[in-house]
Amino acid sequence: MSVTEHLEELRRRVIIALVSIGAATLASVPFSSYLLKVLKTPAYGVIQRLVFFSPEEAFSIYMRISFLSGLVMAFPVVLYQFWAFVSPAIEDKFKSYIKYFVISCSATFAAGCVFAYYVLLPNALKFLLSLGSGELEAVISANRYISFTTGIIFCCGLVFQMPVLSYLLTKVGLIDAGFLRGKFKFALVIVFVIAAVITPTTDVFNMTALAIPMILLYEVSIWVSFLAKRP
Asked: Rounded distance, CA 119 to CA 20, Å?
């Protein structure tokens, strides 16, 4: 394929992905109020209510929630379009792995989102809101709260892609299990840096709560790379 043909194929795949996200977003609009309640659950007991400060802010919040829901729902379709675009550069014997790629990426992304929702967010919110208790009263903007919670959830979902990324990079010959094992000390530092960036708190507990699963995921990635290298 020429460069123009590659660009045309990329444009077609991007359009399909965007249309799927748009359709899923529209389907999520009637459920945006319920989804807001779901996102408020991690703050149960620490935030009494969320407020908005401009006439159009409530509308934009519901649309943002619908878009994020649509992005999650269309995630497998986006993965499929990505695989379909890069598949011409993949050996024929690996092209049939598309269903495993889509399923594994979707499953690990969902696992990361669930971990952030049930473990990381409740503890982070409790710590942050306890800092000003007594002297300060928390008046939380719904817009800021949605940005805060969804940002952490999506970051964790992406972080949990490490084993899948390890498999792909091993198959194309960029890394192997020995390389990952040899870089374990450096990985520990990077893991704690990423955990410190993702978690908005300064306490050791929340940072460690994210760092430990990431370390385990790195170990899993090593074994995934080892198995991917076997004939």
From this structure: 30
